[in-house]
Specification:
The complex is a heterotrimer. Chain A is mainly α. Chain A has one domain. Chain A is 77% helix and 2% strand. In chain A, helix 14 packs antiparallel against helix 20. Chain B has one domain. Chain B is elongated and about 55 Å long. The relative contact order of chain B is 0.11. By secondary structure, chain C is an all-alpha fold. Chain C has one domain. Chain C is built from 9 helices and no strands. The longest helix of chain C is centred in the last third of the chain and has 29 residues. Classes of the chains: A mainly alpha, B mainly alpha, C mainly alpha.
């Protein structure tokens, strides 16, 4: 198979470099280039998945690429395994959807917006593919810095405030991760994740734990788990809906990937377990689950409500992953994928109403059903899936989550998830009600979109993306067992990091 | 540890405290550039000329200019804001 | 109270960090580390006399691509947030003496920056440091001659052109590396030359140039978009 994972990074990167140049000469060309490049990277992602599928099922999928031609301890390498493939496909799919959505949502006049989106995509793909811990840090910074600028896109008071808050937390998280990396490098003398995994037990115990604490703190800030959740509502609430969807759907899942890669493969989960920190992680993650759902009850603004719900679900994913059982990992990965689909759909369909309606932010959702009924039905479907109604995909991931907790006899967790579902029902209902009421007041309002006929009719891009997401949520709910076999391979990779080490360092002989 | 370093490291600490202690932002920024210069000398003592060059150029040159630009921007904003209230 | 608590937490973290970093073993726990290889074989393997440059732009060139892209992203973000359609009306600048002095001095600053960029593989420095020096010229122009001078000499469009040229040069060298050596950002041995001379060290020189243009123009754009509004009022 002739396929290089490198292309998935280089294509968005090259597009981002080209956009300002093309913008200087001809703006129309740039519009075309954005669409073509996004479609081409989607095609590449599909081609990668398609050609890798047989190897994935056989459990032999692994791609290694040595940048600059130097072998792992000397240079940087890309290590693309099946877990990376899953998250890379997620990044490709959602970046494509968000770029198409943005063409209708933001419009074409802001070239820099698309530069940042493509850089964000390149950063996320880099995180998912790299096999070098410092390179991982570079790409974490790239995705973080692009998201700062994207959040502040509206340039009003609240979004600037949110950006500064997010930036302070993001820089703090970056510093913590960097300190962890420095300690590991200074002790071992290597930056390659496979070599670190092979030799992490040689580091003195206190240093092992210090580096793990730094890395974990940094990641928990990025994930927005309980003690560090302050930034989430503000940021998701005041960023443009497309960016909120990108943060909650893609960036949060990429952070889950970093968590898995660093603590299951990089340091080995035994470091966490021997210190008793897996229980601690479970505790704070469950706390953030219930706290997220309770705080969501209070919100009257749809995006802030979705932000707190996102916090709840991220907490649930981290909690079920920290059980470190095969079933727990399966449930966590499944919920990560499904939550990305549902939450992106919720943000994008809510964003449709916020964008194409006038009036104050809290009022814009009133009477939404009369503006565009199919999108509103989509919103209800996503919400039902979030709550976990059987034929939709949210049900299956929650089902496996419950089973994982039952297996380990963590009964409070089951109670918390049940109450989370009921609370979810309570906080989604007012918005559904709000959307269906207020017909008279709505008739007076005008829609802000000016319907210009033709292919570039803005609204069509937005609605198409939401329809695609509805289709994905419903079909993945009908076929959840497609995920079973490939996920088992990924879980085997996570529980036996020796396979990753052998794949990367296979040909190199050590003392 | 050379004698020069034994003198420079405590100096670095004093400057760092001064940077935080100043109420006036402009003084803080200028002290920060002094901090960068001293740090660059320490880098040179430790035989890292590349890092020292970067530290001098960025830390005490460019960053100071950007910070001062931001401070002047905040001041003009505040002045126009006050004027707007009076009128 | 809040300050007191913060101070306690900071002191605790700092103390823990100090104790832990102090307990790091003196030498690396692994014996086959990359740093030993870098020290012994860097000249024969890359042709560069400056080890730091060789690591940055050959062994770990992908990191440098990522880092310069971070600067590119910052520039894009700042331009996105601070972009204004109005052109600045600047002050007349400083006095004649300062103007004449810097008129003589500025070419030498430019020369120094070009020297640092092009000699990155031979002497300390490289694309990044030289690029920042290039950006300093914009700052001199804006402060000494007023920003309208800078606008007329180097309009933002030209800076964007230089910046993207640098970025694409970096990427292009990487792709040429695929064609010549089979791996992205590979250092083709045909370009290696005699170590110690100016045209040597293979792809390190063009990468340095690319980073220099990218960083220099990028930081100049950042400073320029920062002062726009300020000078308009004078």
């Amino acid at each position: 198979m002739i396929f290089s994972p490198l292309l998935l990074i280089l294509l968005p990167l090259g597009t981002a470099f080209l956009i300002p140049l093309v913008d200087l000469f001809h703006v129309e060309t740039r519009r075309l280039m954005v669409i073509i490049s996004a479609s081409f990277s989607l095609f590449l992602g599909f081609a990668a998945l398609w050609s890798a599928w047989p190897e994935l099922l056989a459990g032999t999928f692994f791609h290694s690429y040595h940048l600059s031609g130097w072998l792992p301890p000397l240079g940087i390498n890309l290590a693309f395994d099946s877990l990376g493939l899953l998250f890379s496909s997620l990044v490709t799919l959602f970046s494509f959807l968000i770029i198409v959505y943005s063409i209708g949502f933001i419009g074409h006049h802001e070239g820099k917006y698309y530069v940042l989106l493509f850089l964000f995509q390149a950063g996320c793909q880099g995180i998912v593919m790299t096999g070098d811990i410092f390179n991982l840090y570079v790409f974490i910074e790239l995705s973080a810095i692009t998201s700062y600028a994207l959040i502040a896109f509206e340039r009003d008071r609240s979004s600037l405030e949110a950006t500064i808050k997010y930036m302070v937390y993001g820089i703090l998280a970056g510093v913590f991760i960097f300190l962890g990396i420095i300690i590991i490098y200074r002790s071992l003398g290597t930056l390659n994740i496979a070599e670190i995994a092979d030799n992490f037990h040689r580091i003195p115990l206190t240093l092992q734990r210090t580096s793990v604490v730094f890395l974990l703190t940094g990641l928990l800030i990025k994930l927005g788990v309980f003690p560090f959740h302050f930034w989430m509502a503000k940021v998701y609430g005041s960023a443009p809906a497309s960016i909120s969807a990108l943060l909650s759907g893609t960036l949060a899942k990429v952070n889950i990937y970093i968590l898995l890669r660093l603590f299951w493969v990089g340091t080995g989960f035994s470091v966490l377990r021997e210190a008793g920190w897996d229980r601690f992680l479970l505790g704070i993650a469950l706390l953030s689950t219930i706290l997220g759902h309770v705080l969501a009850l209070r919100e009257r603004e749809v995006k802030r409500m979705l932000a707190f719900s996102s916090m709840g679900h991220m907490g649930m994913i981290v909690a079920v992953l920290s059980l470190n059982t095969p079933l727990g990992l399966f449930a966590g990965l499944l919920h990560a994928v499904f939550h990305a689909l549902m939450k992106t759909g919720l943000f994008l369909s809510a964003g449709y109403f916020l964008r194409f309606r006038e009036g104050p932010k809290e009022k814009r959702f009133t009477g939404a059903a009369y503006r565009k009924l199919p999108i509103f039905i989509g919103f209800i479907i996503f919400a039902l899936s979030m709550i976990g109604i059987p034929p939709l995909n949210g049900f299956f991931s929650k089902w496996f989550t419950m089973q994982a907790f039952l297996e380990k006899d963590v009964y409070p967790a089951i109670a918390l998830i049940y109450s989370g579902n009921i609370l979810g029902l309570i906080y989604y209902l007012p918005f559904v009600r709000q959307g269906m009421l207020g017909k008279e007041s709505i008739m007076k309002q005008k829609s802000t979109s000016s319907p210009t006929p033709g292919f570039f009719y803005q609204e069509r891009f937005v609605t198409t993306v939401v329809y695609i997401l509805i289709l994905l949520v419903m079909s993945s709910g009908l076929l959840p067992f497609v995920f079973q076999e490939p996920f088992e391979v990924m879980i085997a990779e996570l529980t036996e990091p020796i396979r990753y080490i052998e794949h990367v360092l296979g040909g190199i002989i050590h003392e | 540890m050379t004698l020069l370093e034994a003198f420079l490291l405590p100096l670095l600490l004093v400057i760092a405290i001064l940077v935080v202690a100043f109420r006036d932002l402009l003084s803080s920024v200028i002290t920060l550039s002094v901090f960068s210069t001293v740090l660059a000398i320490i880098y040179i003592i430790h035989q890292a000329p590349d890092v020292a060059l970067a530290e001098v150029v960025i830390g005490s040159g460019l960053m100071t200019a950007v910070y001062i630009a931001v401070i002047s921007k905040i001041r003009t904003y505040r002045q126009t804001h006050k004027r707007g209230e009076k009128e | 109270m809040k300050v007191f608590l913060t101070a306690i937490i900071l002191a605790f973290t700092g103390g823990a960090l100090f104790v832990n970093l102090g307990s790091i073993p003196d030498s690396f726990l692994l014996s086959h580390t990359a740093s030993r290889f870098y020290r012994e074989a860097v000249v024969t393997e890359t042709g560069a006399l400056n080890t730091v440059s060789a690591i940055l732009y050959d062994f770990r060139a992908f990191d440098s691509l990522g880092e310069s892209t971070v600067i590119f992203a910052t520039v894009s973000g700042i331009v996105l947030l601070l972009s204004r359609k109005t052109l600045p009306v600047s002050s007349a600048g400083l006095s004649l003496i300062v103007k004449r002095t810097f008129g003589i001095l500025t070419p030498f600053v430019f020369l120094l920056s070009v020297y640092i960029i092009l000699h990155g593989h031979l002497s300390p420095g490289g694309g990044f440091q030289g690029g920042v020096l290039l950006a300093v010229i914009t700052i001199i122009f804006c402060i000494i001659y007023g920003s309208s001078f800078d606008l007329s000499r180097y309009p933002p469009q030209r800076k964007t052109l230089i910046e993207t040229t640098g970025a694409l040069l970096f990427l292009g060298v990487g792709i040429i590396g695929i064609a010549l050596t089979g791996s992205f950002l590979g250092n083709p041995s045909a370009w290696r030359g005699v170590p110690g001379t100016l045209p040597s060290a293979g792809s390190i020189v063009p990468i340095n140039l690319g980073v220099g243009l990218k960083v220099g123009a990028g930081l100049a754009i950042i400073f320029y978009s920062m002062i726009q509004k300020t000078l308009k009022r004078q």
